[in-house]
Amino acid sequence: MCGRFTQTALERYADLFDASAGVLLHPSYNIAPSQQVVACRRTEMGWRELSLLRWGLIPHWAKEPKTGYSMINARAETVADKPAYREAFKHRRCLIPTDGFYEWKPGKPRKQPYFIHRKDGEPFAFAGLWEHWELDNFKVESCTIIVTQANELIAHIHDRMPVIVDRGDYEQWLDPEQGKEALLSMLKPYPEKEMEAYPVGLAVNKPGNNGPELLERV
Asked: Are 171 and 39 in contact (CB under 8 A)?
C-alpha cells in the first residue's frame, strides 16, 4: 500500500507535467490520509492543471464523506471493475506528484520505516483517481492512489507499492478517451533499478512530525 509520501516543490511539479500551478503548496515531508495533496488533472479545455484534493476517495454516491479514509489506495487488479472506483477509472484519472514515499518493514520490537525514491532525486507521479462529492452545498474533491505488486527492491519491505506512471505515459493516463486495456497496461511495478530505499527514523510514524529531517538515513 501507500500510506505516507512527500510533496515538497510545487515549481518542480508544474514543470514535470507542463501544467498551470493555480494552487499554493506548503512543503510536506509526511503527508497522511485525509490531508490535502496536489494532483494534476486535465481540464475540459484539454489543459493540465494542478489542484488540491483530499487524500481518501469518496465515491459520488456515498452518504457521508468519512468513508474516504479507508479508500486511500485502490488495487490495480480490481480498480477498473470495483464499484467504488469504476467510474473514476473511466473518466477521472489524475497524476499525484511526489519526491518519494514511505513503507514499513515488519520487525521486532517495531516496524522499520523506509524512504523510497528515484535514484536521480527527480520527482515522479503516482497513478491516481479523483471524485467530486456533494451534499447540501458541502463539496469535497478527493483522490486515491493506485497500488500494485511490489518490485524486487520493495518486496523485502512490503508486498505492494504505488503505481508510478512513466513520463511518456502522462498524456495517455489523463486522456478521458483512453481505452481500458491501454490503461490497465500502465498499472505495473516500476523498475527497481531506477529506485532506492533506505531506513529512516521512527519520527515519521507520527503524522504531526513534518520536516526534512524525516528523510535522514539511519
From this structure: no
* 103 in catalytic set: yes
The verdict on whether 40 is a catalytic residue reads: no
Question: Which of 151, 125, 157, 148 lies closest to 5, judged by CA?
Answer: 125
Q: How far apart are alpha carbons 95 and 169 in whole angstroms?
A: 11
Q: Please indicate, yes or no, if residue 206 is contained in any of the structural domains.
A: no
Q: What is the pLDDT of residues 86-123, one digit of tens each?
A: 999 999 999 999 999 999 999 888 999 999 999 999 99
- Residue 14: what are its φ and ψ, rounded to 5°? -60, -40
The answer to whether 23 touches 51, Cβ cutoff 8 Å, is yes
**Of 14, 16, 143, 23, which is closest to residue 72 (Cα–Cα)?**
143
DSSP label at residue 217: B
Could you tell me where the DSSP H helices lie in 46-165? 86-91, 152-155
Residue with cell 486535465: 42
Catalytic annotation, pick one of 40, 94, 103, 131: 103
At 217, give phi and psi (nearest 5°): -70, 140
Q: What is the CATH number of the domain that holds 132?
A: 3.90.1680.10
Give the range of the structural domain holding residue 84, as residue numbers without chain letter: 4-101+121-150+163-191
| Residues 146-155, mean pLDDT to the nearest whole number | 97
- Domain-located, residue 209: no
pTM: 0.95
Q: What are 135's three cell numbers?
A: 451534499
Number of structural domains, the chain?
Answer: 1
Sign of CA dihedral 117, 183, 12, 42: negative
